[in-house]
Specification:
By secondary structure, the protein is an alpha+beta fold. It has a single domain, classed as Cytochrome C3, CATH 3.90.10.10. Helix content is 27%, strand content 8%. The protein has four helices and four strands. The relative contact order is 0.10.
Length: 130
Amino acid sequence: MKRSLFMTLMVVALGLALALPLYAAAPKAPADGLAMKAPAGAKQPVVKFNHSKHASAKCVDCHHKKVGNTEFVKCDSKGCHADYAAKTGKDSFYAAFHGPAAKSCLGCHKAVKDKSPNAPSACPKCHVKG
């Protein structure tokens, strides 16, 4: 009896130890109201992004580059989406937000429209004037 109890406790302890990294602290998201600046000459107003409205998404659903284990690279960083002139392509700043890919804002919003009918997919819903 003591041996089976001991073995059970050891298995539980091992399972908890292996699961611990899954519950490690995730990177802290920036505050709500983050102003996503458009390139110079853009006609649309700045987008105010709220991380709290996207709490059900994982950071890697949008961000695909990291610095170390905790900090995600900003979209317009050198080597990411820093081509402000192009409308398409992996380096395009515009495509990162408006492309059909699931990682783009517009692509994701269109994909989840049936589950989240309030997900904006029209220009003035994200690019709010004033």
